[in-house]
C-alpha cells in the first residue's frame, strides 16, 4: 500500500487527461452572469460509471442518467447550474432529454452516449431558450484546456473552485485522473446538491470501474457531514476513455491497486474541499468514532454529532462544549453507555468515562480555534469505527439560505 | 367532546391551585444575577406523574426522579437553571440527592417525596455552595402567589415566561390546573432542555394520572419540532394533591374526559409557547402531514421537514421554497411518491402532484411573511396523519449558540 501511494502524484489543478476536452460558458441561468453551463467530452468512447442520490424525489437528469448508465458507454456530460430541473414533471424529463439530444447532434454522437446533470433551485422549469444557445456556445468552446472553465460553471454557492488531478503509472505508462466537484449547502449531501466529474485516460473494465467508484464515493463524498441522505440531484460520474492504451485494468491486474488508490485519493481530496467550503463554514471538523458495537453504529453516532445544530453552532466560537456532543451521542440510534464515553480534541482528552477529563480549558479552546481539528470519540463498547467530515454552522450559513 | 371543551376555561397566568405554594430566587448560578432556583410544594401529599427524556445520556436529577416516581407520592419539586448536572458521574447523583434531602429537611418531609430538575450547561459540577443557600432562601420565600417567580427561575434562553392556568368542574366543584414550562434551544426537545411542571388540586388516581400525562405530552411537548430525540434533562412532572376534595378521578368517572381534556389543553398551550419562543425564532410553523401510509410514517415525514436546516432557514425570508420541502420529504424514511405530493400554505396550493400548482408567488409570499402559518402536506398514499410545531432558524439562533 505504501508502495502504491508513493507512485501517485496529486496536484491541485484540473488538467484534462489525453482524449478529453471541456468548456464552461455563461448561458444566462445565473442572474449574476457567471458561467453556468459546462460540457465534458471524451474523443473516444469511454467506460462510464455513476453514483446517484438515494432521495425518493429525483431530478429529471438523475432519472435519465440512471437509465443510460446501463449502456455502459459515455462520450459527453452536459451540466447546468442555477436550476435543478427537479419536480418539473414530464416536462423536466423532456428538457433533460433535449439537452442530451442537442449536445449529441452538435457533436455527432447518439444521445444515449450523453449524460446530463443540473443543480440549483427545485421546481422551476428549465429555461430552454437559454440552455440551447448555451450548449451551442459550449460545443464551440470545447478545448483540452477547458477544464477550469467547466469546473467554474458547475459552482453554485461554492466560494472556491474544487478540482485536483492525480497521475500514476499503469504498465509503466503515466495515466491521468482529473476531477472537479461542486459542494453542497451545508456540505451535507442531503441539503444541497453535490456533483463530481472524474475523467481518466486509463483503460478500465466497465463493471470494475463502477465498483471502484461506488466504494470510493462511500468513503469520501458520503463521509462529508451528516446522514447520507441526499439531495434530488447528487451525482458523481466517471469516464475512462482508455487513451493511455494499456491492457484493460480490472482487479487482478498488477496495477489495479494503484488505480483504485488514485480514485480514492482524488475523491477524498474533492470531498474534503466540499467540507471546508460548506456554506458560511469557517472550520473543517473531522469526527472519528471508534469503540462502537459495529461500524454501522459508529457511523450513526458520528453523524448524530456532525448533524447536531447545537454542536455545529458551538464550533463557531472557541468554547469546547463537549456536553452537546455527549447529548448528541446519547440520542443517536447507536448504543451508548454514558460512563464509557471518551472524547478527545486533536489528541487532548476532554471527556473520560463520561465526565470531564480535567484538561485545562485554555488548551481545548486553542484547538477549537483552529481552522481544522479532529474530534476522536471512543464509545468503548466494541470494534466499530467510522469517520465523518463536517464544518461549523455560522450566521453566514443562515443568511445565504433565506435569501431568495 | 364539545360539551367538555366548553367547560374548560384557560387563562394566561400561573395561578397556583389550592394547597400549593411556590418560590423563585436568585442563587447565583446565572452570571446575570437572574432568578435560577425554583421550588414548588404541595401542602398535602400528592399523586405524582412524570415523563422523562429518552436520551441514553441522562442527567443525574432525571435518574433520581425516575427511581422516586415508583413511590407515587410527591410533595415538592426543586429546580435549578444554569447548570444541567449532567455527565458529572457519581458526584452528580450525590448533589441531586443532596438537593432533595436539604429541601426535605427544611420542609419536614422525607427526601423520597422531593423531586429535582436541572437545566443548563452539561458537564460542570453543581456549585453546591450556591445551591444550598438558594434552597434555604426559596423555602423562606414559599407563597401561594409565588408561581410567577418560580416560572421565571426555570427560564434559560427563553425570552418569555411560559405559563397558563385552566379551570374546569369536577363533581360540580371548580378545579384548577396550572402549569409552567421552559423552552428548549431551537425548540427541539433533542437540542435544548424542556421542563414543565403541572400542578392541580384535583384528586386523581395515580396510575391514571401517569397515563393521562404521558398521552398529553406525546401530543404536545413531543410534537414540538423535530425528531422526538431529547436532551439529557427533559422532564415533565405533574402533582395532583386532591385539595378539591371530590371523588377520585379515573377513567369511568363522569368528569374524567373533562380532566383529560384540560390536561391536553394546558400541555398544548405550553408546547406552542415553546415553539413560538424557540431561540432566535420569528415564526411559528405548523407542519401537518396526511395521506402517509400510516401515522408513524406521517410523523417521520413531518419531522424531516421540520428538522431540515435548509427548510428552517428558508422560512426566515418570505420566498416559499417548497423545493426544499420536497427534498426533505424525499429523504425522510417515510414512503413518498413524488408525483402524488401536494403541499399547501395556509390552504393555498403550492404543489400539486409533485409539481408547481401555479398559485401566484406573491400570495404564497404573503403567507410566509406571517408570524405563524401552516404547511399542509398530503402524500396521497394512505390514512396516516401527524402534526409537528416548529419555527424558523435565524442568524440570532446561531449567535445565541456559539456564545460561551
Properties at a glance:
homodimer; 15 strands; globular; 2 domains; nine-stranded mixed β-sheet; about 25% strand; about 400 residues; Ubiquitin-like (UB roll); alpha+beta; L-amino peptidase D-ALA esterase/amidase; 12 helices
Describe the secondary-structure layout.
The structure is a homodimer of 404-residue chains.
Chain A: H1 2-7, E1 9-11, E2 20-25, E3 37-52, H2 60-69, E4 73-83, H3 89-107, E5 114-121, H4 128-141, H5 147-153, E6 162-170, E7 173-182, E8 195-200, H6 206-218, E9 235-240, H7 256-276, E10 284-292, H8 295-307, H9 309-314, H10 322-331, E11 342-345, E12 348-352, E13 355-356, H11 361-368, E14 372-378, E15 384-391, H12 395-402
Parallel strand pairs in A: 4-5, 8-9, 10-14
Antiparallel strand pairs in A: 1-6, 2-3, 3-4, 3-9, 6-7, 7-8, 10-15, 11-12, 11-14, 12-13
Q: Could you state the order of secondary-structure elements of chain A as H and E?
A: HEEEHEHEHHEEEHEHEHHHEEEHEEH
How many structural units, i.e. domains of chain A?
2
CATH top level label of the largest domain in chain A = Alpha Beta
Fraction in beta strands of chain A: 25-35%
- How would you name the oligomeric state of the polypeptide chains in this document? homodimer
Structural notes for this entry:
The structure is a homodimer of 404-residue chains. Chain A is α+β, with helices and mostly antiparallel strands. Chain A has two domains: 2-276, L-amino peptidase D-ALA esterase/amidase; 284-402, Ubiquitin-like (UB roll) (Roll), CATH 3.10.20. Helix content of chain A is 33%, strand content 27%. Chain A contains twelve helices and 15 strands. In chain A, strands 1, 2, 3, 4, 5, 6, 7, 8 and 9 form a nine-stranded mixed beta sheet that branches. A six-stranded mixed beta sheet of chain A has the order 13-12-11-14-10-15. In chain A, helix 2 packs across helix 3, helix 6 packs parallel to helix 7 and helix 8 packs across helix 10 (322-331). Chain A is globular and about 70 Å long.
Amino acid at each position: 500500500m505504501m508502495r502504491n501511494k508513493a507512485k501517485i502524484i496529486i496536484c491541485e489543478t484540473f488538467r484534462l487527461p489525453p482524449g478529453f476536452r471541456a468548456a464552461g460558458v455563461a448561458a444566462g441561468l445565473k442572474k449574476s452572469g457567471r458561467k453556468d453551463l459546462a460540457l465534458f467530452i471524451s474523443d473516444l468512447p469511454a467506460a462510464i460509471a455513476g453514483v446517484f442520490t438515494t432521495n425518493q424525489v429525483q431530478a429529471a437528469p438523475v432519472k435519465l442518467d440512471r437509465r443510460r448508465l446501463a449502456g455502459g458507454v459515455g462520450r459527453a456530460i452536459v451540466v447546468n447550474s442555477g436550476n435543478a430541473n427537479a419536480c418539473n414533471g414530464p416536462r423536466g424529463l423532456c428538457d433533460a432529454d433535449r439537452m442530451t439530444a442537442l449536445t449529441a447532434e452538435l457533436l455527432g454522437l447518439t444521445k444515449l452516449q450523453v449524460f446530463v446533470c443540473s443543480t440549483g433551485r427545485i421546481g422551476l422549469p428549465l429555461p430552454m431558450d437559454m440552455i440551447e444557445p448555451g450548449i451551442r456556445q459550449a460545443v464551440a468552446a470545447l478545448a483540452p484546456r477547458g477544464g477550469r472553465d467547466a469546473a467554474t460553471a458547475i459552482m453554485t454557492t461554492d466560494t472556491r473552485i474544487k478540482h485536483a488531478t492525480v497521475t500514476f503509472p499503469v504498465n509503466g505508462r503515466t495515466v491521468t485522473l482529473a476531477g472537479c466537484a461542486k459542494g453542497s449547502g451545508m456540505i451535507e449531501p442531503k441539503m444541497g446538491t453535490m456533483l463530481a466529474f472524474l475523467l481518466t485516460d486509463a483503460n478500465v473494465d466497465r463493471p470494475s470501474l463502477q465498483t471502484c467508484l461506488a466504494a470510493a464515493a462511500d468513503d469520501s463524498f458520503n463521509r462529508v457531514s451528516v446522514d447520507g441522505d441526499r439531495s434530488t440531484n447528487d451525482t458523481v460520474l466517471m469516464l475512462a476513455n482508455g487513451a493511455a492504451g494499456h491492457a484493460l485494468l480490472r482487479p487482478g491486474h498488477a496495477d489495479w491497486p494503484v488505480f483504485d488508490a488514485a480514485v480514492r485519493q482524488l475523491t477524498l481530496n474533492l470531498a474534503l474541499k466540499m467540507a471546508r467550503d460548506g456554506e458560511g463554514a469557517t472550520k473543517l471538523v473531522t469526527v472519528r468514532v471508534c469503540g462502537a458495537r459495529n461500524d454501522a453504529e459508529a457511523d450513526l453516532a458520528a453523524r448524530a454529532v456532525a448533524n447536531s445544530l447545537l454542536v455545529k453552532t458551538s464550533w463557531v466560537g472557541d468554547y469546547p462544549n463537549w456536553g452537546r456532543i455527549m447529548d448528541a451521542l446519547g440520542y443517536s440510534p447507536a448504543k451508548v453507555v454514558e460512563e464509557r464515553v471518551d472524547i478527545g480534541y486533536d489528541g487532548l482528552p476532554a471527556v473520560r468515562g463520561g465526565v470531564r477529563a480535567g484538561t485545562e480549558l485554555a488548551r481545548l479552546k486553542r484547538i477549537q480555534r483552529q481552522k481544522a481539528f479532529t474530534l476522536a470519540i471512543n464509545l468503548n463498547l466494541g470494534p466499530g469505527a467510522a469517520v465523518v467530515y463536517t464544518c461549523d454552522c455560522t450566521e453566514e450559513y443562515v443568511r445565504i439560505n433565506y435569501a431568495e
